[in-house]
């Protein structure tokens, strides 16, 4: 994907109204509506809404209050697990991890039609109000709990190991992890705390500088990209701020407002392998896409859409795993390159699934060059007409002045 692919889409998308066939998705493998694209026709599509799910019956492709499973060769019924109010979401090794502030963490495997509750969520490992989740390269799960004021750690089988950070007095709203450290976003102190994941001891803090404009301000969510850059949304200033792993300030963009590239309530944030930054706005109820320099490329979602919209979105995650499975949910001529998951805290569709891609056999570069040329030609025609009108007005003004003499 290239930056210029979005050029005409940004302007057109802002003024377009999406006309859709009413309906809703009944599960990840079923769709009862026509294709929903962003930006809408007649623009070339870059994203397609694929499906959504809210419970284990949706994932399994069944209905009702129970799901049929096979256990020891016998048909059994299992109670449906429901996502009540999702907060954090991340992907690892083809699985989706969703925190529910009702006290659960769900592990979802869409291709295999499985949605399970975290095994270790009991006893000492019982979650109270989990909000952030991160999974390391070995499959260990880290969950930030703002009621326990701790980070709980589970092994790659979902079994509880330990909790850390209880002695730090923080408000852990989000977390990230790499091969060395655990990073905890502390909203109350407006910093990122860098912890030793084994001992829980604090190593340093990121996000507080002598310049308030380079410091965090009521941070809500963060993401650590594959280049070691932290991207943080700030509810205090309506901005996105970035730092390197050593805490050096890299840049900021955005402000409060209802215009393109502005935020009302920025929350979830992530990046893809192209370096694009996806920012969830729970106020505008959409996701805006930026370059790493803060230039707006486009957006998708809206509270007004009957299908493919968002309802108080809180977090976002992107994956390239299992593309063959998700391609079956897409329009056959629309080729997916990434899958985007968005958590919605209200409404019937708690997890929305979108595909980033393009139409097969279409030269997007050529199409956008042509669109740019047409815009430039139209702009020149408008300028010529304005100049002609100004010259005519000047001539009239001269005639009027001569007549008065």
Instruction: Tell me the structural class.
Output: mainly beta
Q: Name the poorly predicted regions.
A: 1-26, 68-75
Count of helical regions: 4
Largest sheet: 5 strands, antiparallel
Strand order, largest beta sheet = 1-2-27-26-25
| Distance between the amino and carboxyl termini | 66 Å
The Rg value, from CA coordinates, equals 24 Å
Strand content: 35-45%
Helical proportion?
Answer: 10-25%
Number of strands: 27
Shape: globular
Average of the residue pLDDT scores: 88
What features would you describe in this structure?
15% of the residues lie in helices and 39% in strands. The chain is mostly beta strands and 405 residues long. The strands form seven sheets. Strands 1-2-27-26-25 form a five-stranded antiparallel sheet. The chain has a four-stranded antiparallel sheet with strand order 5-6-7-8. The protein has a four-stranded antiparallel sheet with strand order 9-10-11-12, with no helix packed on it. It starts with 6 loop residues before the first helix and ends with a helix.
Considering the chains and any ligands shown, give keywords for the structure.
single chain; 405 residues; mainly beta; 5-stranded antiparallel β-sheet; 4-stranded antiparallel β-sheet; 27 strands; globular; disordered N terminus
């Amino acid at each position: 994907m290239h930056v210029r692919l979005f050029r005409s889409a940004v302007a057109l998308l802002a003024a377009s109204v999406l006309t859709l066939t009413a309906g809703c998705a009944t599960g990840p493998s079923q769709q009862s509506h026509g294709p929903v694209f962003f930006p809408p026709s007649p623009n070339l599509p870059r994203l397609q809404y694929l499906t959504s799910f809210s419970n284990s019956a949706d994932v399994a492709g069944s209905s009702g209050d129970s799901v049929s499973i096979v256990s020891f060769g016998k048909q059994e019924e299992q109670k449906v697990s429901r996502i009540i109010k999702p907060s954090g979401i991340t992907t690892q090794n083809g699985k989706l991890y969703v925190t529910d502030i009702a006290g659960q963490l769900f592990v979802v495997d869409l291709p295999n039609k499985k949605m399970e509750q975290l095994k270790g969520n009991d006893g000492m490992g019982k979650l109270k109000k989990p909000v952030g989740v991160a999974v390391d390269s070995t499959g260990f799960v880290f969950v930030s709990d703002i009621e326990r004021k701790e980070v709980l750690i589970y092994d790659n089988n979902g079994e509880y190991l330990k909790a850390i950070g209880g002695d730090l007095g923080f408000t852990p709203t989000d977390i990230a992890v790499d091969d060395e450290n655990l990073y905890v976003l502390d909203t109350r102190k407006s910093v990122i705390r860098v912890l030793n994941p084994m001992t829980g001891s604090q190593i340093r803090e990121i996000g507080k500088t002598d310049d308030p404009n380079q410091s965090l301000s009521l941070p809500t969510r963060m993401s650590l990209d594959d280049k070691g850059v932290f991207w943080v949304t700030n509810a205090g200033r309506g901005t996105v701020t970035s730092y390197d792993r050593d805490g050096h300030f890299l840049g900021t963009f955005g402000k409060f407002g209802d215009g393109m590239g502005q935020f009302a309530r920025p929350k979830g944030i992530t990046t893809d392998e192209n370096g694009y930054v996806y920012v969830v706005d729970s106020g505008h109820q959409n996701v805006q896409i930026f370059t790493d320099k803060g230039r707006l490329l486009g957006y998708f979602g809206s509270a007004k859409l009957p299908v493919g919209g968002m309802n108080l979105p809180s977090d976002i995650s992107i994956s390239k795993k299992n593309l063959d499975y998700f391609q079956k949910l897409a329009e056959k001529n629309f080729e997916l390159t990434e899958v985007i998951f968005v958590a919605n805290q209200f409404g019937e569709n708690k997890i929305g699934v979108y595909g980033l891609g393009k139409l097969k056999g279409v030269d997007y570069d050529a199409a956008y060059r042509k669109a740019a040329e047409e815009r430039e030609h139209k702009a020149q025609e408008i300028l010529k007409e304005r100049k002609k009108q100004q010259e005519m007005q000047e001539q009239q003004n001269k005639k009027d002045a001569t007549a008065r003499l």
